Amino acid sequence: MYLKGSKYSYNGRKRRSNPFRVFFLFVLVAAGLYFSIYIAPETQPLFIPTNTPTTPPEAFISEAEQFAKEGRNAQAIELYQKAISSDPKNPSVYISLAKLQMFETHYEDALKNAENAILLNGNNAVAHAIRGWALGKMGNYLDAETAFNRAAEIDPNNPLTFAYRTEILVDQINAGQDSLNTLEKATEYSRLAIEHGNELMETHRARGLLLEITGNYEDAINEFQIAISINPNISDLYLALGRNLRAAGKDAEAITAFERARSLNPYDSWAPYYISRTYSGNGEYAKAIQQAQDAIDLDPTNAMFYWNLGTQYYMSEDYTNALTYFRLAIQGGTTPNGEIIEGIPLSYDNRVPELYYMYGIILARSGNCQEAAEIVKLITQGIPNDTIAVENAQYMTDICKSGTFDITLTTPTAPVPAE
């Protein structure tokens, strides 16, 4: 049946195509193809974090080496640590870091990094030598010797092993823990260090430290100057040079050296300490007091610095302040920040008797005879073979027996601190 005009007719005529619609569809298809081929591969998916460029460890190492050459050890240490974080399997970075930490007196950190290097390469002689160096600086001389022996087994002629070994033997002598042949061994190791590594700063540094303890100050000055010519940016070298210049009577040059050490490491408390001692030797007590206070400000837990400040007040006849700081040096105490000051026990070592009898004389002169009597007892029972200390203990007793107390009294038997 044919239904005229019906919209349901199957025989209706087809519409003609619209050329504009065809063109528009063609453009859409072409754009889609272009996006899928060229745009989509370059586009990151939404909500996925993009990759951050990673600095290669070599960049950190290169910058750290440059900082180390400039004497900027704190920055160099930080960059070596970043290099390790980037690549924790490179033993040479641990070794470089440990060396710098040793010069900055961060001995525990240096020990840890030397041991990390050994874990990665157990046959690295320098790593074992630095381990021995760090252990020795921490007073563990027995284990230090074992570490040095292991380094020598790996490389019998390594000059750094000889140099570090010399330095630790010098420390043993200074600490009173040497044996009959300690100085002889140190001398031989120092000779071998120079023989096998004359071009190294460390070998001349070790030689200078050895010459210093034997009183060969001019030769020590020469060795430290050579070491500085090799590496002019290590504060420790200038401290050592200054000590020997001062011992040789060259105070102006010594202060210059100490100031250079302070410029390289403003946080090192030993530079102002040595400057204070130098000024004191010239009778410039006001300057000495200021420098002594600077040392305490940098390291408020070191009892030796309180002793030094007390000495400067004593020499300038300010006995009240001298008494305060001598008491802190002997008895210890607590800083305003709650840090502990460990007192210095009486012994025959390192001029310690001077501290006690200077303190005792002030106590006696000011009428504090009960406390003075305690110092007398400590000296006569603790260090009876120190004749100067015993004589001054008797002087305290005589003052208290006389009943004449005058803190301004001067006497030929009053102690004069050794410089």
Would you mind describing this structure in some detail?
68% of the residues lie in helices and 1% in strands. By secondary structure, it is mainly alpha-helical. It has a two-stranded antiparallel sheet. Helix 16 (303-315) packs antiparallel against helix 17 (319-331).
Give a quick precis of the structure.
The chain is mostly helical and 419 residues long.
Brief descriptors of the model:
disordered C terminus, two-stranded antiparallel sheet, mainly alpha
How are the SSEs ordered, and which strands pair?
Elements: H1 19-39, H2 57-69, H3 73-86, H4 91-103, H5 107-120, H6 125-137, H7 141-154, H8 159-174, H9 182-196, H10 201-213, H11 217-230, H12 235-247, H13 251-264, H14 270-281, H15 285-298, H16 303-315, H17 319-331, E1 333-334, E2 340-341, H18 352-365, H19 369-382, H20 387-402
Antiparallel strand pairs: 1-2
Helix pairs in contact: 2-3, 3-4, 4-5, 4-6, 5-6, 6-7, 6-8, 7-8, 8-9, 8-10, 9-10, 10-11, 11-12, 12-13, 12-14, 13-14, 14-15, 14-16, 15-16, 16-17, 17-18, 18-19, 18-20, 19-20
Major sheet: size, sense and barrel closure? 2 strands, antiparallel
How many angstroms does the end-to-end distance come to?
A: 135 Å
SSE-based structural type: mainly alpha
Strand line-up of the largest beta sheet = 1-2
- Rg over CA atoms: 36 Å
| Shape designation | elongated
How many E-type strands? 2
- The proportion of residues in beta strands is under 5%
What is the helix content? 55-70%
Number of helices: 20
Task: Quote the average pLDDT.
Answer: 87
Order of helices and strands: HHHHHHHHHHHHHHHHHEEHHH
Low-confidence stretches: 1-17, 38-44, 46-52, 409-419
